[in-house]
């Protein structure tokens, strides 16, 4: 009986901590890195990216913020900034939640003669809370980049960490 009570107390404590990480008023600081394969006009290329972000939980499980992106590949570097919205839903056990994230932003490139672009992105996947403040995220991501009538579509897998700062 003692083992059952202790197990229930532990599960309840873990559930409270998992909920506390995405409470209204908390800050979210982190980022991700990914490897992407892109196909434009039948030509395939590979690239990498790093995207730090800062967000604020405006309601329980809902964060808004901004993400800066640095992408490299094919002798070009692209920089972007995008506001994002993130929603944590569907707890998976006591220490994980699924999340969805959407962003719309602007990008520029180091390539000669390049013009600014509009970037629309979505990503979703599980956030595994390693402790009270740190989550490991694995997400499938999609992005559409448009500039002067031409568009590029990207699909990829993103791995990152988020640090949740409480009130």
Description:
The protein is mainly beta and 167 residues long. The chain contains one helix and eight strands, in the order αββββββββ. Helices cover 11% and strands 69% of the residues. 27% of the residues are buried. A hairpin with a 4-residue loop joins β6 and β7. The protein has a single domain, classed as Porin (Beta Barrel).
Oligomer category: single chain
Poorly predicted sequence stretches spanning 5 or more consecutive residues: 3-19
Content of β-strand = over 45%
DSSP, total strands: 8
- The CATH architecture comes to Beta Barrel
* Radius of gyration, taken over Cα atoms and rounded to an integer in Å: 19 Å
Mean pLDDT over all positions: 83
SSE pattern, N- to C-terminal? HEEEEEEEE
**In one word, what is the shape?**
elongated
- Helix and strand composition category: mainly beta
Terminal-residue CA separation: 37 Å
What is the CATH class? Mainly Beta
CATH topology heading: Porin
Distinct helical segment count: 1
Fraction of residues in helix: 10-25%
Largest sheet: 8 strands, antiparallel, barrel
* Domains, number: 1
Strand order of the largest sheet: 1-2-3-4-5-6-7-8
């Amino acid at each position: 009986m003692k083992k059952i009570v202790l197990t229930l107390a532990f599960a309840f404590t873990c559930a409270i901590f998992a909920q506390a990480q995405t409470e209204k008023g908390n800050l979210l600081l982190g980022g991700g890195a990914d490897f992407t394969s892109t196909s434009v006009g039948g030509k395939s290329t590979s690239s990498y990216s790093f995207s730090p972000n800062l967000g604020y939980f405006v309601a329980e499980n809902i964060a808004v913020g901004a993400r800066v992106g640095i992408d490299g590949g094919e002798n070009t570097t692209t920089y972007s900034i995008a506001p994002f919205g993130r929603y944590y839903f569907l707890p998976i056990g006591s220490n994980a939640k699924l999340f969805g994230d959407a962003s719309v932003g602007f990008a520029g490139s180091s390539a000669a003669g390049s013009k600014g672009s509009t970037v629309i992105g979505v990503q979703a996947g599980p956030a595994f809370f390693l402790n009270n403040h740190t989550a490991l995220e694995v997400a499938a991501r999609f992005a559409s980049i448009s500039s002067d009538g031409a568009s590029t579509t990207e699909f990829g897998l993103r791995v990152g960490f988020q640090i949740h700062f409480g009130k």
